[in-house]
Amino acid sequence: MADAALRLTALAEELLGEALPVRIRAWDGSEAGPPGAPVLVVRHRRALRRLLWKPGELGLARAWVAGEIDVEGDLYAALGLLAGLIWERGGEPKDTVHPVRDPRLRAAAKALVKLGGALPPPAPPAEEMRRRTGPLHTRRRDKEAISHHYDVGNDFYALVLGPSMVYSCAYWESPEATLEDAQRDKLDLVCRKLALKEGDRLLDVGCGWGSMAIHAAREYGARVVGITLSREQAAFARKRIAEEGLTDRIEIRVQDYRDVKDGPFDAISSIGMAEHVGSVRYAEYAGILHALLKDGGRLLNHQIARRPERDESAYQVDEFIDKYVFPDGELAPVGRTLAALEEAGFEARDVEPIREHYALTLRHWVANLESDWARAVRYASPGRARIWRLYMAASAISFERNRIGVNQILAVKTPVGGASGMPLRARTWN
Fold first, then answer.
1. pLDDT given at position 92
2. What is the pLDDT of residue 376?
3. Which Pfam family name is an example for this entry (predicted)?
C-alpha cells in the first residue's frame, strides 16, 4: 500500500505539535494533508536521508537544490504557511530534528530511516559553496564569496533582473510601475541624495553591472570610479559603458574597497554591498569610506537590515543563504550600522526605510525567472535556478512580514566647523 505521504504528514505533525498546513505528495504517488492547499512534493526518498544527516534547514535546502523536493501551486502561499508554522512561532527551526537529545526525536529519526533508508549521506549539490577556509573576510575569501554569487553568468542575471541590470531594491512610485522605471527612480534618488553635479567625483562601491555609474555620469555629469570583485560584472559594465560613449567619465575596476587609495571623492554610493562586509570588518569599512571622502562629502549606504536579537551573540547566518546564495554575508540591525558609521566620523542625516519596495522588487525578479525557466536553467543550471527562485520568493515574504528590512542611510563627512552642506528641510535632496 502506498502510504509514504500519510506517514510523513503524521511524523511532521508529531514533531511540530499541530496540523500541517500544506499537502504532501510522496515519491510513491500517495498524498495526504488538507485538500486545496499548496502541495509539498517529495520526489525522492533521498530527501529524507539528507534530513537525517543534516537535520533542519541545510538538509531541506540540499533536497530543494537537488530537485528532490518541490512545491506545486503558489510558492508564496506555501512559504507563507510554513513560515507561520515554524519560523514565526517563536521556535528554533534549525533544531526541529535533533535525534540525539530527545527520545521523541530519536523515534522520529528511526521513522525517517524506515522511510528513507539508512544509506550513506548523499553528496551535497554541486552549487553548494565548499572551499572557504581561514578567517572571515580576508581579501582572498571575500573574492571567492563574491565570485560564487556573481560569476554565474551575465545572461542569467540579465534574464532575472531585466534591462536595468540593477541587483538591489527598486524604488516604486506605485505597484503598477514597471521594474525598469522603479530601478531608474532608485538610481536617480541616490544621485539626488548625494547632490551630484557636473564634474563631481563619485566612488561606487560594489558597482555591479555598471547601472549606477552610467546613470550618475550620463544624467548628472559625474566622473565615476566603480569597483567590484566580480570579473564578469566588470567585463559587462565596461561593455555597456563603451556602448553609452562614457568611457571618458567612468572607470570600472576589479578592486577590493580596502585597496582604493586615490581619494578624495566628492560622494560615495554603496548600494547592496555592505551586507558582504561582515561584522568583523564593518568598522574598518566605515573608516575607509570616511577617509576617502572630502570634507562635506556625502555617503549613501543602501543596506539590508535584520531585526535585532535580544542576545546579539546568538545571531547565526542563515544556512541556506550562506551555503548557496551569499557566502559569508551578514545582516546587522540598522541601529548597529548607524552606530558604526557615526563612530567612523560620519554624521547621519537621514534614514529612509524602503522594506515594502524590496518585496515588490523580488516578486518581479521571481516572475522574470519563472516566465523563462527553460532559458534560466540553460544559462546557469537546474540547481542554480531553483536556488534563486527559493531565496527570492522567501526573501519577498521576509520583507513583507518585517523579518528583514532595507534602509538608505545618508551620511555626511561634516567638517570640524559643522557646515554639513545639507538643506534645512530633510528630503529636499537638492
1. 44
2. 97
3. CMAS
* DSSP-based three-state secondary structure for 373: helix
**Threshold 0.85, pTM exceeds:** yes
The helix (run of H) or strand (run of E) holding residue 85 is none
> Which pairing describes strands 223-228 and 201-205: parallel, antiparallel, or unpaired?
parallel
Sign of CA dihedral 57, 62, 66, 68: negative
* Residue corresponding to grid cell 510554513: 82
Q: 375 φ, ψ to 5°?
A: -70, -35
What digits encode the pLDDT tens for the residues 259-296? 999 999 999 999 999 999 999 999 999 999 999 999 99
Q: Which cell numbers in the block locate residue 324?
A: 548557496
ω into 135 cis (within 30 of 0) = no
Q: Is 303 helix (H, G, I), strand (E, B) or coil?
A: strand
- How many other CB atoms sit within 10 Å of the CB of residue 38? 22
**What would the grid cell of residue 164 be?**
536595468
Distance, in Å, from the CA atom of 353 to the CA atom of 334, rounded to the nearest integer, reads: 10
Query: Cα–Cα distances in Å, from 95 out to 55, 86, 101, 317, 328?
Result: 7, 11, 11, 14, 21
The three cell numbers of residue 40 are 509539498
Name the pLDDT band for 150 (thresholds 50, 70, 90).
confident
Averaged pLDDT for residues 50-72? 91
Write down the H helix ranges in 162-309.
Answer: 179-193, 211-220, 231-244, 282-292
pLDDT at 317: 85
pLDDT at 201 over 80: yes
Asked if residue 216 lies in contact with residue 191, where contact means CB atoms within 8 angstroms, the answer is yes
Phi, psi of 401 (to 5 degrees): -95, 10
Indicate if the pLDDT at residue 430 is higher than 90.
Answer: no
Query: Which residues have a Cβ under 8 Å from the Cβ of 90 and sit 6 or more positions away?
Result: none
Contact 211, 186 (CB under 8 A): no
What does 140-183 look like in DSSP terms, one character per residue? HHHHHHHHHHH-S-HHHHHHHH-TT---S----SSTTS-HHHHH
